[in-house]
Design goal:
The protein is mostly beta strands. The chain is built from two helices and 19 strands. The chain has an 18-stranded antiparallel barrel. Strand 6 and strand 7 form a beta hairpin.
Length: 400
Amino acid sequence: MSSDGNGLVTGVVVALMLAAAPVQGQQTSVHGQLRPRHELYDRGGGMGSSAFTSMRVRAAIQALLDDRVSAYVELQDVRVWGEEASTLTDFRADNLDLHQGYVGVGLGVDGWLRAQAGRQETNLGGQRLVGAVGWTQQGRSFDGVRLTATRERGTVDLLAYTLSESDGTPRSVDGDLLGIYATADLTAGTALDLYGLLDRMSGATDTRQGTLGARLHGSRGPYAYRGEVSVQRGRRLGDDVSAYMFGVRAGRSLLEGRTTLTLWYDYLSGDDDPGDGKIRVFDTLFATNHKFYGLADVFLNIPLHTGGQGLQDMALKASHRVSDRVGLAVDGHVFRVAKRLTGRSASLGREIDVTLDYRHTDQLGVVAGISRVSVDDGLRAIGNLTDDLTFSYLMLDVRF
């Protein structure tokens, strides 16, 4: 579907919204968030250290126009403390932006079909391929239309998002993300997700890439599990794509559910011959990679941050609720490439993440963490991290 096709979908949805029942009343609610976070990076090899405090401020208003129609507007400001020398001389709100702004309407009997048009956050499944990246202060949102059908045994989402528009904007290329994501409840504790995504970009980028996959997840008694596989075909940056990914996870809760142990393995295909005109490295698209490949965010952009060689991530994760308010988590990762380039080491390194969270109330929480990344020769050769790294942070999260 072209950008014109996206416009057609948008037009149809807007027409459906206009055909909804007339406004009979209006209820509004206001929401907000303040999240300052101090971060410290201590790099080895004479690279020194850096420390700064960033802050997210969000303000949102939701209006329920009637029992089917709603509107949501969320503004955010993201900045580093001290980047404005003086508010007397810099008052242009450079960092203020629209994070979300959409209208939603329930369609069909009992509103089983919901349409949202505008800028909106989107989390699909475990956020392996499409996520809002809540850890980053700015987060991610998309411009476009989302249709969600909810039935007794599952849901189906249809997406038509505009990534880049050349008409009437400074952008020179057109791009879009189209997709379908379906979740079916198989048993009381097990669900199966099936999905297809198409991301396209015109011009010199010449990308028309499809991703098909399945995700089985659930729990039974004290055990929790997840298995996922995706394949990518099409064209990326002018070359043919043949890539894949799979991941498995198994966990068990102990001590009346207060402790959880989880084994984790992910494999993202890589390319050991980048000059043959065939791309074999898996692209994580618009994923929330912070959730998967270590909290120090060494591998945020895949394939770039693994040098096109893919990634293997073997992890052991443990979490414990010290009390109803205090939680402790320790994660250990071992990273290797999936396909090693000639003359390179396959070993990337290891990472240990320790996280302590304190929930004072439902509206006020504090999170502290420290991560230690030990770098091996494979990661040094890629160049995005050349020596060991210690990353620590302290974050205050206020929501109302």
